[in-house]
Amino acid sequence: VQLVESGGGLVQPGGSLRLSCAASGFTFSSYAMSWYRQAPGKERELVAYISSAGGSTVYANSVKGRFTISRDNAKNTVYLQMNSLKPEDTAVYYCNARWGARYDYWGQGTQVTVSS
Predict the structure, then answer these.
(1) CA 19, CA 5: separation in Å to the nearest integer?
(2) For residues 53-72, b (16+ Cβ closer than 10 Å) or e, as one string?
(3) Count of beta carbons in the 10 Å neighbourhood of residue 103
(4) What is the pLDDT of residues 71-116, one digit of tens each?
């Protein structure tokens, strides 16, 4: 099983980034996918969730209206479009795949830094 995040980097406040998470080694279309983030000194928090078929999404209040999660089951990839970025969005962003309570996979993370 592999989850490989990409697309992180340094961006100025107000800018945009698009994160990608390429999955392999499991039946991607059967798994709910999420993006989490962890800032220095803070606990990991849920940023966005998308159901296996993509029909249901959930967002943290702090990112509603700015971030959009989507998935392409044909490409085994989940995305996080991040707009109007703020310094408080600075964190390591992790991709998560989950099926029930038993199957729970994590990527290695990608750094997002929002700074002028």
Answers:
(1) 7
(2) eeeeeebeeebeeebbbebe
(3) 13
(4) 999 999 999 999 999 999 999 999 999 999 899 999 999 999 999 9
